[in-house]
Amino acid sequence: MPVVVVESPAKAKTINKYLGPGYTVLASYGHVRDLPPKDGSVDTDNEFEMKWEVGTDSRKHVKAIADALKDDNALILATDPDREGEAISWHLEDTLRKRKVIKKDTPVSRVVFNAITKSAVTEAMKNPRQVDAPLVEAYLARRALDYLVGFNLSPVLWRKLPGAKSAGRVQSVCLRLIVEREMEIEAFNAREYWSLKALFATPRGQEYEARLTVLAGKKLDKFDLANATQAELAVQAVTSRALSVKSVEAKPGTRNPSAPFMTSTLQQEASRKFGMGARQCMNAAQRLYEAGYITYMRTDGIDMAPEAVMAARDAIKDRFGEDYLPKSPRMYKNKAKNAQEAHECIRPTEMTRDAGKIKTTDADQRKLYDMIWKRTLACQMAAARLERTTVDIASDDEQVELRATGQVMMFDGFLRVYEEGRDDVSGDDDDDRRLPQITQGEKAAFAKSSLRDQFTKASDQDDDVVEGAGDAMTRSDAAVLAANEAVLALRHFTQPPPRYTEATLVKKMEELGIGRPSTYASVITTIQDREYVRKEQNRLIPEDKGRIVTIFLLNFFRQYVGYEFTANLEEELDEVSAGQANYKDVLGRFWHDFSAAIAETSDLRITEVLDVLDDALAPTLYPPREDGSDPRQCPLCGTGQLHLKTSKTGGFVGCGNYPECRYTRPIGGDAADGGDRVLGEDGGDEISLRSGRFGPYVQRGEATEENKKPKRASLPKGWKAEDMDLEKALTLLSLPREVGEHPEGGMITSNFGRFGPYLHHKAPDEAKGIYANLKDPADVFEVGMNRAVELLAAKRANPGGRGRAAAKALRELGEHPDSGGPVNVMEGRYGPYIKWDKVNATLPKGTEPADVTMEMAVELIAAKASKSGKGRKTAAKKPAAKKTAAKKPAAKKAPAKKAAPKKKAVGD
């Protein structure tokens, strides 16, 4: 029987079902080899020879394949149909040949299929080929480049910027995009402008809204109404004139559907519609592909196979009728720069199978499949037909003109199934309104209704301030500049560019030609794992550490974080994969310049680097002050100069008079934002607010020889540094608070600890006493005796908390694929964790429970089990096929595996 090798056990299970008992289908579990994280893995002096190493976890999988080939002398490599899949096949064949497992008479073939369906798999088996050398060389070039950049640049960061973790060929350019967008936002100066709206009524009493477009006979530009005075004059000009309908123009229009999904657009739409991160989206898509529900999910292509197009048209006709079917199929041009790496679009393998017919309970997979299915059908449906209407309302002297716009849907077409999301949608889209019947020449009378209520509702999501009748009003008070309340002047401010979401970042990277679809998810994940970027409300915000790294690279390695340079390098790699360039020539040109740049920074001292960064960041770090004083002057001591400093946790601004003056503040902050400052005096001691390694804290006095550890108190969760004053600081410094004497003796106290607010009581017969958690930080200052005694009694009765109801799972992932038993995401005291059998594996920092997949959970469980030794008992469960085999004597147990050596940080 031929041995068929794929990447994952899930894919192996599906393919084995299609191929039947005549084949042995095994999984490689991803890449079997990688470059060891040590110097010399890419030999730059020997034509970039690469030294590969089989991973510790991969050895057993390679052995299983080798053992199978002893009985079955034929190898079929059926890994994914892209550059990575080709590389895995090459690695596996090369490894087996070096081990002499593959004999001279062993036939080795490569098959690819774009979808895991019976027809696709059996057809692929009829058309075997050899491993594609140019695709492998493109992989080798990328892997060597990533190694050379990461392995050589990361140590430079470690030496020059304490706290920096790594740099990468694509990762650092992606980070630059986020940092530069943040700097644009910080440098943005809002500009005020006004607009005017009026509510009219037709002779039949139907109302419609219009906006001012012409004033004093001149077309009104965005900033022409620059202040409240000009807005009020505009209102008077409108309300003092008789108005009539100058023209009514209705134009037919059409909307065509979007192209079917490729990897980048799938990630963008999943982010817009569901808030899915790139990695979460790709994990769900991977599962759908392995289950045979969709075609391959890593592709630059948007073309669709002819048979799929016809299947889509048949499904549309059956579900919606012939009216929704265009006369001829829609053809979408492939955008991939290299056709050899382009696959079909991402589409369902069966067009008649909607989301209700797929066998999965995973919510992410269901949502994603539904979106893919709808988008695929929509792309082959008829266009939507609209009628766009424009109504111009003018005064007789043509000094004033207003315009109302709207549209009527004549035929919904593809919109019946699907409408593409938008990244930054303004809430005021006049074109989406439907207008009443309006006749040219009829009188345009102001409506009796008020615009006040409409604007009040809209303003709940709008930061505009409105002024009316000369009085400033808040945004929730719609300003009325006319007695009939039918005319409003609205104050606006221009807005800075929005922070990137994962969707808009992927879109920008795609536009610039940075990275490729298969890399977007891992790159965005990496910069968050490195704590260079954090995600808040789906927006990507650079941390100080990420900002420092970016400015450093821009000043000392500018070429290598250049958008054009990175895009050009991607094009060269595409030429390699197309067989049009030699990968060693590409590596040679890159290394010649890059090694010289590395050498130039080797003699730089940290102080020199900080001086350069300090100057580069000066506009951000030291903005002009309102009083005109020196922005670098320390606000605490008044004599020192502020300078950029670095620490293991990132960068910060500190006073040059340290240690006499300990003023510090974050890079993105200002003195007013809660930087170190004196809050006042109490009993002759100076009470100050300071920034420490673990956040802001208050301190009484200074450290002296007599008092080496002055009283300190960290700010509790929810307390902001900018809100701190002397009274609050003294309240914190007074802790622990004595709640009262316990009925059984001993004082009850409340305080804040490492894990939050708590109560403490030590009875006369106890050695250490008991601690009980408080839920609300305010309870530290407010909890009374009765409740304190109850909480302490409950804690003593149940010290381990095991008498309580069992913790509920945040997510149920299903049965462990190898060993059985439920795998769940649980809520723990110190954060969410994965639970399986007796193994509890904490989620990595920044990972949300919703992002966890079974594959990720199994990896975390295996890593935890190998460290703690808990996995030894459960390991016997893994090989299900060997359950009936006789147990081996205890003496023949394999020795415990050694932990893998800690890898150095190498960028992606």
Observed structural traits:
908 residues; alpha+beta; Topoisomerase I, domain 3; four-stranded parallel sheet; 21% strand; disordered C terminus
What do these coordinates show?
The chain is an alpha+beta fold and 908 residues long. The chain has 6 domains: 3-131, Rossmann fold (3-Layer(aba) Sandwich); 141-181 and 500-604, Topoisomerase I, domain 2, CATH 1.10.460.10; 192-249 and 390-409 and 429-493, Topoisomerase I, domain 3 (Distorted Sandwich), CATH 2.70.20; 263-382, Orthogonal Bundle (Topoisomerase I, domain 4), CATH 1.10.290; 735-797, no CATH class; 809-862, no CATH class. It has 24 helices and 35 strands. The strands form 10 sheets. Strands 9, 10, 11, 12, 13, 14, 15 and 18 form an 8-stranded antiparallel sheet that branches. Strands 2-1-7-8 form a 4-stranded parallel sheet, sandwiched between helices. Helix 3 crosses helix 5 (133-160). The radius of gyration is 33 Å and the shape is globular. The two termini are 39 Å apart. Residues 456-483 and 871-908 have low confidence and may be disordered.
